[in-house]
Amino acid sequence: MDLPRALLWDVDGTLAETERDGHLPAFNRAFAELGLPWCWDQALYGELLHVTGGRERLLHDMATRADAPAEPAAREALARELHALKNRHYAGLVQAGGLPLRPGVRALMDECAAQGVAMGIVTTTSRSNVQALLGCHLGPQWAQRFAVVVCGEDVERKKPDPQAYALALQMLGLTPGEAVALEDSPAGVAAARAAGVPVLLTPSAYFPDSGLAGVLARGPGLQHRNGWQPCLAEAGGDGGSGGVHLDDIRAWCRLQPPAPAAGVKEVCSPSP
Ligand code: XBP
Ligand code: MG
Description:
The protein is an alpha/beta fold. The chain has nine helices and six strands. About 40% of the residues lie in helices and about 10% in strands. Helix 1 packs across helix 4. The chain has two domains: about 5-15 and about 100-255, Rossmann fold (3-Layer(aba) Sandwich), CATH 3.40.50.1000; about 20-95, DNA polymerase, domain 1 (Orthogonal Bundle), CATH 1.10.150. A six-stranded parallel sheet has the order 3-2-1-4-5-6, sandwiched between helices. Helix 6 links the parallel strand 2 and strand 3 (about 150). The protein binds xylulose-1,5-bisphosphate and magnesium ion.
């Protein structure tokens, strides 16, 4: 049986530049809507991203602010209100067309469908955000394209904890080595690797320096054939069109020993 049997898609940063173009402006709109004098800039948000979960991120930031509510219960209530508002603004940004899928994502999804390779969503963002993004890009029946959809509400511990991946594997009835995760960030890679799932890494805007350590392959985006390690031959699996194809992923899987923590060498050879 050819591997992988399933591709497991992260959402934020992997499917679209949702952190830079969606969540960050949506958080700032929520602050403004409640009349709060808070505004996160790109640099601060980059630091805050080490806290996964939007509500958790808000609470983390409030802990540094003298003008945040002093009482834990009031702080928690404000974080919940802001988070709900943020997700509403996020959905508005998606509807306005501000969050296109990253190039190459749709093509690989369609190739999976054509070849009968299962797909899953494995994210720790809120389900409403997944619904907004994929409903917009794949239509109201988007969920039918995925054999499993794991979101933040489904787990107790968000990425980099492996729980979301472990749950997806359990629901799919697959061993970790039978799936490949697509991720954009160190926390996402850590979550997948801790679950034993090999990772295809396409760093997003906030994580340009994410390294090759421990991943099956790393590249600038699914629409490119150049810039990947291990290197890809110039022609695609369909005989020449650009982008990463399922056959490339299968070839990367064959290069990889099945041990959970195995990595790839930083050597550029002209295969697969
Ligand atoms: C990314 C996250 C999320 C988003 C915000 O998860 O950490 O918290 O930043 O979404 P992933 P919420 O990369 O696994 O998709 O506000 O819904 O938490
Ligand atoms: Mg991500």
